Amino acid sequence: MRRPGHRGLATGALAAIAALLISSCGAGGRPEEGEGGGASDVGVTAESVKVGGHFPLTGVAAPGYSEIPTGAKAYFDYVNANGGVHGRTIDYVYRDDAYNPTNTSQVVNELVLQDEIFAMVGGLGTPTHSAVLDFLNGEGVPDLFVSSGSLLWNQPGKNPQTFGWQPDYEVEGKIIGQYVKQHLPDAKVGLFLQDDDFGDDGEKGARAYIGDQIVAAERYAPGNTDVAPQIAALQAAGADVVIGFNVPSYTALSQLTAMRLNYRPQWIYSNVGSDPALVGSLLSRFSEGKVTDAAMLEGVITTEYLPGVDAPDNPWTRLWQRVWDAHGGRGELTNYRIYGMAQAYTFVQALQAAGPEPTREGIVRALEEVGGELRGPAFVPYRYSADSHAGLGGVKVVRIAGDATEDLGPVLVTGNGDTEITEYTEQHAGPPANGIPNVEPVS
Amino acid sequence: MRAVLRRLVPRSLLLRNLLGVVAGLVVVVLVLETTSPFRNSQFATMSYYAIAAAGLTVLTGLNGQISLGHGALMAVGAYTTALLLQGGSVPFPLAMLAAAVVTALVGVVVGAAAARLHGPYLAGATLALAVGVPGLAIYFDGLLGGEQGLSVRSPRPPGWFADAHYFLTAGELGGAKYLAYIGWITLLVVVLLLANLMAGRYGRVWRAVRDDEVAAELAGMRLGGLRILAFVVSAACAGLAGAVLAMVVRLAAPSGFTIVLSLSLLTAVVVGGLGSIPGALLGSALLVFLPPAVTNLGTGAGLTGVQAAQLAPFVYGVVLVVVMLLAPGGVMGLLRRLWRRGINQGGST
Amino acid sequence: MQQFVNITLNGLSQGAIYAAFALALVLIWRATRIINFAQGAMAMFTTYLALPLIESGQSYWAGFAAALVAGLVLGALVERIVMRPVEGGPELNAVIVTLGLFIALQALAAILFGATFQSFPAPFGLRGFTVGEFTIAFTPFSVFVIGSVLVVMLALTALFRFTDLGLRMRASAFSQEVSRLLGVRVGRMLTLGWAFAAVVGSLAGLLIAGGNLVHPAYMDAVIVYGFVAAVLGGLESPGGAVAGGLIIGLALSYVSGYLGSELVTLAALGILVAVLLVRPRGLFTRVAERRV
Amino acid sequence: MAEHGGALEIRGLSARYGPVTALDAVDITASPGRITAVLGANGAGKTTLLRTISGLVKGADGSVLLGGRDLTGAPAETIARAGIAHVPEGRGVITELTVEENLRLGELLGTARRGSRNREHRLGTVYEMFPALAQRRRREANSLSGGERQMLVIGRALLSAPEVLLLDEPSLGLAPRIVAQLFALIRDLVDREGITVLLVEQNARSALSIADTGFVLNLGRVVAAADAASLAGDADLRHAYLGF
Questions:
Q1: pTM to 2 decimals?
Q2: Is residue C42 part of a domain?
Q3: From which residue to which does any coiled coil extend (chain D) (predicted)?
Q4: Which residues of chain A neighbour B183 with C-beta distances below 8 Å?
Q5: C95–B311 C-beta distance less than 8 A
Q6: HSE on the CB side for C140, CA within 13 Å?
Q7: Distances (CA, A) of B47 to A189, B152, C2, D135
Q8: Is C125 on the interface with A (CB under 8 A)?
Q9: Is there a domain that residue C246 lies in?
Q10: Least confident range of A353-357, A412-416, D4-8
Q11: Is B45–A106 a contact, with Cβ atoms under 8 angstroms apart?
């Protein structure tokens, strides 16, 4: 077992330079010589399974998103404290890529080649994760539950190792579009979009229902914090409903700019950008308290697919609170942490399904076979099968009211393309009593 | 002893450099074969920094022109490579060559503008270039993939190469290792060409221009043309570096070519010693191997992961200032000074 | 029409900030023939210093004043400690030192204050004024922005025109040797010049941050815009820098509003190249010849 | 103004530019109320001598004393504040400033040295002395002719209330008529104010015509020292070094 400690790394680096300049030097053995593990695979030992993820811990996307891995870590610690999965603890490593795809490539190299993880769990971001899609699939690393709603993760033919998790942006866009068509049929709709697949997929979904109502689509480049020209254009186009597919920082920026322009359309933000607590805390400090907290998001429409902190009595939220209190670090339980815990919960389910001697191949096969039947924290099931690696299939439309949300309709499910939107009626079951899933191994 | 050595080294410059490159190749094979895939991937990263830094050191060190825009030139090379490799029909060496040519052409344009500027003006203009060019990729998102960029099909080792490799080393050829080979072979070729160029007529002329513009102009040299040529050579290197980067990172995206990249390259050449190719290699090695070491020191000292990650750039910045204040010749300058002192002492006793 | 008016007003208040930043660059350029590429990082750093003060319950103005004072001190320290040895040396060395400072300060801010987006308060309302039935993109804070840049400009003009200190500083900037022969303590004047410039830069940093999100790299693009504005104004003239700042602010706002926000930095590059190649002396400079 | 102008004593002063010795153990004394001329061919070290005295060039050896106070190695601004006004050759005017601003700089130094505030009066005396400057007081010094510039720098030096005036080629590029006026003015000043003047000139004949004593420099060494009249009368010396 080789474990590069602090000194090992530092001296290793020096040695590598020396090696280059002088002659040769053995800075480590060959990898993947672990033939003796029986059915087990890279990153799996008798005591542990090592998994990794990449997240923006710094930079433009860090607010909120940087909390996701802390949630996942807390849940894994909770599972480990309760005996782990098939007797193995889950060893979770996550690294910062600053939402920069080039960094992502570097840190995933480290995770796969240096840390030798068994699987990638919850790697975050559309532009970032697409940079490592080929690499992970080429190396045969299971790439589970990407933290992004892009359609890219559902290409089982091309990327057999990759699985989506959250409802994709097209599904969300369709459901939002249908809501606007039904309830605001006369509205002129403006779109406020992040200039990448995130915005594009959302736009595609929305246009399928309200193509004729859309009067303007404005895109912002992430990193440029001056969105005044975009908001002014939406206002000029006379949009009285604005649908935003954007990250939380830009929810705050768009609200702030709209206030400056006294522009008051009905705002609809996709789930990703709408966390009231986070946006509120970003907004609260402006103008010496003249902007009051989440009140600014009062009445804003968004979507939900997980019970969150605004439903403290939901049995799932009670579980997350218990986990966070016992294993969380600093800070409160937030929706982002719940997101991370829910992903971790799904991974535990998948690992259980992969059996007592998990392999990379085995966990992928297990998800394809039973993934569609798994039930967990989300209101709707996954769409996993041999032909589909798409994640959750629906959301419900809600309105932000005070510190909570109120439902504007039932839970809806749909698929990509022309699939119709239908109501999902299965009752949402609570978590197991011990808070740990119990999935039978496949085959 | 030195006389013996001198006799063993061939007289011709080209031969001598060639011999150095062959020796380098042997070292590269030995190092890549004995290190882990992770180290291999680090060496692959180092190779593209080194290619770009070698080109930059010719421009800044020999010709006296600063460029904060080499990141943008690398972007040109990377996107060219990504576009050509997309179809799967263009072999990667051809794509790399094309990247170098296209970037050199861009270098003609940028160089022509840059030749009329000096010092702070040139720095500011190339800084604007570095900040501005990535915007093109977002504007032409249909072709260039916008914010998320173009993913690149990294070349897989062809059968004969893998076979030859197995025959020689009895080990299988991983993806990281193959990319490291591509990067380092490119680097050795670039170093060979640059070393010859620097030792030859153009090297002398460039140095003359740097040291005394007026005198060089009076001596009948066409400064504009010389400056542009230096820029083109340097741009071609940046283009190649971009091509290697695209294949190693498997992506050409705007976020890969921020101002940080350009400043890192500058750090590498300044710390290594302006105008010195070995210095550029040393500087690039620092760029790759220093951050993990510094980051570990930081976490060891109780910093959070995020704080520790920022420790490396902090060290770069401080080192850049300190080097300029105390040892403007960089590491190579220091070594040369020590070497000379050694000889002088040896002579006097 | 409303859109045009709003984009114009937005451009004006952004332009005022670029003007302040360009002014800071020009002050240092005139005094020491150095472009301070670390100006943005210095401004970012002092702005961050105000944040914990304001968060701890002090008034906005306490933080504001603290940031400006910190700018004064930082500017003086930077000149005295790291710039003095490279002043008058090869111009490349000075450029590299300022870039080193830029990298180091940015990393240090991330270590000390964190690297995430944080909101920064504004002392005045952020709700636009209403004219007739329209609300325009001009807020009490915009008035403050433009007002404070005007005040700084007037104060600097008064300092240079009407005071003995200003005369000494100008003399040192134009001719160090003659100034020394006239008993002017040139070293002190240069330190003071950097200190004043850093205060103006800090002000620009505070104004950009106000009612917006800050992170350690939030001033990066502003360095470029400020540099373009300063070159547009001819690098020598404070008045030119202000005019250049306003022009850049307007131009970039139109580009962002009508062509796309991803083109803003490219537009800045285009303007810079055009000015350098066509009118290297800037739009307003009277000096006959200048080497660029 | 300078109530008891101090003597300027230069002892064993040497200066080098890299390997080149520009001044080699020079001894010169200039007394108050007298004009001391330093003569010599181009490259003899005259300008280096003045630059070393005023602290613009670091001397390698020797000392500079003003009224017994050791100023060796002091920075230029300290030497200026001690009362040595150096009027450099050619480029003494700050062209970007106005005429009045140039003068005010000298006046500021004078105020600092004397602690008086009577500005208008003193600027007025210079304008009286040089009416051409008064007309152009608001103009940039850029617009002045060569003669006017020379007046400006001398006027500015006088405003600083110096004890010692170092004049480097004040006649350079001026019409003979103006040179004569200028020298008459200098003579008059010295007689009236009792200041010490060290006058560097290539035009030895006219310099000696107003000087009291003279030193001849050649290749950085003093090769002759005598009163002005006997220097002017020494035919060999004139022939060898002074060229008239």
A1: 0.82
A2: yes
A3: none
A4: none
A5: no
A6: 8
A7: 50, 18, 54, 69
A8: yes
A9: no
A10: D4-8
A11: yes
Neighbours of chain A (3+ CB pairs under 8 A): B, C
Contact A273, A250 (CB under 8 A): yes
pLDDT, mean of residues B293-306:
80
Of A60, A226, A285, the CB nearest to C215: A60
Question: In this complex, does chain D touch chain A, defined as having at least 3 beta-carbon pairs under 8 Å apart?
Answer: no
Which homologous superfamily does the CATH classification assign to the domain defined by D1-83+164-244? P-loop containing nucleotide triphosphate hydrolases (3.40.50.300)
Angstrom distance (rounded) from CA B106 to CA B110: 6
Q: Which residues touch B210 (CB under 8 Å, ≥6 apart)?
A: B62, B63, B64
Q: How many domains does chain C have?
A: 1
* Chain-centre distance for alpha carbon B195: 14
Chain D interface test: which of C182, C285, C286, C290 (most D C-beta within 10 Å)? C182
Please name which of B197, B227, B243 lies closest in space to residue B78, comparing C-alpha atoms.
B243
Q: Using CB atoms within 10 Å of the CB of residue D68, give its burial: 0 to 12 exposed, 13 to 18 middle, 19+ buried.
A: exposed
Other chains touching D, judged by 3 or more CB pairs under 8 Å:
C
Burial of A361 (0-12, 13-18, 19+ CB in 10 A): middle
| pLDDT at residue C273 is higher than 50 | yes
Under the banding of pLDDT at 50, 70 and 90, the label for residue A30 is: very low
Q: How does the average pLDDT of chain A come out, rounded?
A: 84
Instruction: Please state which CATH class domain B12-258 belongs to.
Output: mainly alpha
Cα–Cα dist A271/B208, whole Å: 63
Structure confidence by residue, pLDDT tens digits, D84-125: 999 987 668 998 899 999 999 998 888 888 765 555 557 888
- C interface mutation test: which of A262, A263, A284 has the most C CBs within 10 A? A262
DSSP state of C85: G
Q: Which residue has the higher pLDDT, C3 or D52?
A: D52
Give the per-residue pLDDT at B135.
82
The partner residue sitting opposite A59, judged by closest CB among C3, C135, C215, is C215
Q: Mind telling me how many Å the CA of B147 is from chain A's nearest CA?
A: 6
Interface test with C, best of B320, B322, B323, B326 (most C CBs within 10 A): B320
Q: For residue range B333-348, what is the model confidence (pLDDT) as tens digits?
A: 888 888 887 766 654 4
Distances (CA, A) of C274 to C236, C280, D34: 18, 9, 60
* C180: nearest CB among D77, D108, D156: D77
Whether residue D60 is predicted with pLDDT greater than 50 in this model: the reply is yes
Host domain of residue C205: 22-219
Domain at A169-304: CATH architecture = 3-Layer(aba) Sandwich (3.40)
For chain D, give every domain's residue range: 1-83+164-244, 92-161
Instruction: Assess whether chains D and B touch, using the rule of 3 or more C-beta pairs within 8 angstroms.
Output: no
CATH of the structural domain A39-167+311-392, one choice from 3.20.20.150, 3.40.50.2300, 3.40.30.10, 3.40.50.20: 3.40.50.2300
C178/D contact by beta carbon, under 8 A: yes
Per the CB < 8 Å rule, is B123 touching C35? yes
C–D CB contacts, 8 A cutoff, strictly below: 66
Please return the burial class of A407, using the count of CB atoms within 10 Å of its CB with bins 0-12, 13-18 and 19+: exposed
Binary contact (B296, A6; C-beta < 8 A): yes
Ranges for all domains in chain A classified under CATH 3.40.50.2300: 39-167+311-392, 169-304
Q: What percent of chain C has pLDDT over 90?
A: 43
